[in-house]
Specification:
This protein is an alpha+beta fold. It has four helices and five strands; from the N terminus they run H-E-E-H-H-E-E-E-H. The longest helix is centred in the N-terminal third of the chain and has 13 residues.
Length: 134
């Protein structure tokens, strides 16, 4: 029989947008990202959700994000391979707070910074990948 994971859904926490804004500020300060957006269920005021702050970010290139690996590690982000070409997935866990996941994609010239990968990224980050802390 296959083991099943328990998915925790909790009442809305007014700290979620504050945590997302803080994570966004940390990431923007690295100078690599064109935009960082809070997405997913924790971005909807009043909605019960998994306590995972989902962020989507756009950068000029994935190479630029990969070059910032040490800086991202300094912020507590660890890369997680999801096998999805053209995307990088990172997560961090902080004791006593929601986990943060962030997916980066290259910006498409002439489009808003985060619109090019929104639909795919939302589907990706709404699911906790096997082997990551929930």
């Amino acid at each position: 029989m296959e083991a099943r994971s328990v998915i925790e859904v909790v009442e809305y926490d007014e700290a979620w947008p504050v945590r997302a804004a803080a994570a966004r500020a940390d990431l923007i300060s690295l100078g690599v990202f064109d935009a960082v957006e809070h997405i997913g269920s924790t971005s909807v005021p009043g909605l019960a959700a998994k306590p995972v702050i989902d962020l989507m970010a756009a950068a000029a290139s994935l190479d630029a994000v990969a070059a910032a690996q040490d800086a991202l590690a300094g912020l507590g982000y660890r890369r997680f391979e999801v096998g999805m070409p053209g995307r990088l997935f990172y997560y961090r866990t902080r004791t006593g707070s929601a986990r943060t996941s962030c997916t980066w994609c290259p910006r498409t010239p002439g489009t808003p910074a985060t619109s090019a990968c929104c639909a795919t990224t939302c589907a990706l980050t709404r699911t906790t990948p096997a082997g990551t802390p929930s």
